[in-house]
Every structure is written in structure tokens, then in C-alpha cells.
């Protein structure tokens, strides 16, 4: 079996979040840059990896994984000795999965809809309720902090944390009104692996 780990992405994309995780894990990998300007995400050889034509994607041990949250969860589990995912059977696993899925299914659409100023869907129908609900809930996620699992930094911080850093950089509103979230964003930005992969 080919054990090589290949990440397809580029620094100005969600692939940065996976790159951030790889540096936190400190494992060997090969980065293949997919250049959007050259149309590489829509070329046949890349569509064979991800038919969505989206990055990030990884290939590891002959298996392709796409979707940022799934890749981050997969890699944290694939290298358990690095301690970035609570083991199956550990009650903290429930908290970890909760916020990993919150990152993909709640934070991401809430941020995008807010950035694009899309009209609000009815609160009971929208999976994220309202943007204000999401911020209030993130506040509870960080109580007591400093990380999602308390004193333990994990892959959930890589995913949710990077989403929030990017949201703040793109000027998503009201984050400054939540000092706990603002301080968390600074903690993520200060991590050497984040700085190195985001070029900040
Ligand atoms: N649901 C995907 C979204 C990935 C995504 O939209 N990636 C963007 C860059 S951030 C992309 O590849 N855009 C290039 C294109 O659509 O051609 C995930 O969470 O990984």
C-alpha cells in the first residue's frame, strides 16, 4: 500500500485549514498546488479526484477524502498518537464530534450567508437558526476554554478556529461584541502552524 499523503489545494482556499492541521500533526505530506486561475480545479485529472472540482482533497493509503471537516477528522483519527482527536469511547469524543459537525453544517453556511448578505431564512427552517444564535452558541463552546475541549487543543480547534479567523478577516460582523470569540481567534492566529500555513 502507498502510504504517501497528498494534499491538493492552494493557500488562498479552505485547503489552508488542512495544511494547518498537517503542520500541527507534524507528519510528512506532499502538497500539490491546484491553480484556480489556470483552471486546474476543473481539469479532468483533478475532477477524477474530486468531481466537485473543489479543494481541499487528500489521497492517503489509496483513499480519497474530500470536504474540509471530513479530512481534518480523518487525519486526526489516522494519527491517534498525535492526540488531536479523543479516542472512540472517550466521552470527550462526543463534544469533539459535536463541534466538528457544527463547523461544517452550521458555522460555514451562517458565515457565508451573512457575508453575502443573503436574506434570512425563517429561524426554525434554517439549520443554523440565525447568525446571532450561532455567535451566542460559540460563546458557550468556549466556556471555560481556552480550547473547545478545555485545556486540550484538538483538531476541532483547527477547523472551527480557522473558520473563525477567516470570517473575522473577511469582516463578518459582530464578532468583536463577543470577547471570548475574539480572544479565541487571536489564540488560533498565534499558533505557529496557523501562521506558517496562512502566511500571516
Ligand atoms: N464543501 C467544501 C467546499 C470547498 C470549496 O468550496 N473550495 C473552494 C476554495 S475555498 C474551491 O475549490 N473553489 C474552486 C472552484 O470551485 O473551482 C469543503 O468544505 O471542503
TrEMBL record:
Pfam families: GST_C_2 (PF13410), GST_N (PF02798). InterPro entries: Glutathione-S-Trfase_C-like, Glutathione-S-Trfase_C_sf, Glutathione_S-Trfase, Glutathione_S-Trfase_N, Thioredoxin-like_sf. Residues 2-83 form the GST N-terminal domain. Coiled coil: none annotated. Keywords: Transferase. Residues 89-200 form the GST C-terminal domain. The keyword Cell membrane does not apply. GO terms for molecular function: transferase activity. SUPFAM superfamilies: GST C-terminal domain-like, Thioredoxin-like. PANTHER family: GLUTATHIONE S-TRANSFERASE FAMILY PROTEIN (PTHR44051:SF21), GLUTATHIONE S-TRANSFERASE-RELATED (PTHR44051). This is Glutathione S-transferase. It comes from Rhizorhabdus histidinilytica.
Amino acid at each position: 500500500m502507498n502510504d504517501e499523503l497528498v494534499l491538493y489545494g492552494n493557500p488562498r482556499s479552505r485547503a489552508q485549514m488542512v495544511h494547518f492541521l498537517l503542520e500541527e500533526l507534524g507528519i510528512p505530506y506532499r502538497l500539490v498546488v491546484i491553480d484556480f486561475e489556470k483552471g486546474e480545479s476543473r481539469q479532468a485529472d483533478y475532477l477524477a479526484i474530486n468531481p466537485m472540482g473543489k479543494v481541499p482533497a487528500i489521497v492517503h493509503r489509496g483513499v480519497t477524502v474530500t470536504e474540509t471537516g471530513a479530512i481534518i477528522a480523518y487525519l486526526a483519527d489516522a494519527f491517534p498518537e498525535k492526540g488531536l482527536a479523543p479516542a472512540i469511547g472517550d466521552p470527550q469524543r462526543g463534544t469533539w464530534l459535536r463541534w466538528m459537525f457544527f463547523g461544517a453544517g452550521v458555522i460555514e453556511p451562517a458565515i457565508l450567508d451573512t457575508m453575502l448578505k443573503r436574506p434570512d431564512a425563517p429561524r426554525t427552517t434554517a439549520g443554523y437558526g440565525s447568525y446571532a444564535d450561532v455567535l451566542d452558541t460559540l460563546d458557550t463552546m468556549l466556556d471555560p476554554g481556552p480550547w473547545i475541549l478545555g485545556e486540550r487543543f484538538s483538531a476541532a480547534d483547527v477547523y472551527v478556529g480557522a473558520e473563525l479567523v477567516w470570517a473575522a478577516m473577511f469582516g463578518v460582523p459582530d464578532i468583536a461584541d463577543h470577547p471570548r470569540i475574539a480572544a479565541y481567534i487571536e489564540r488560533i492566529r498565534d499558533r505557529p502552524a496557523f501562521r506558517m500555513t496562512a502566511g500571516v
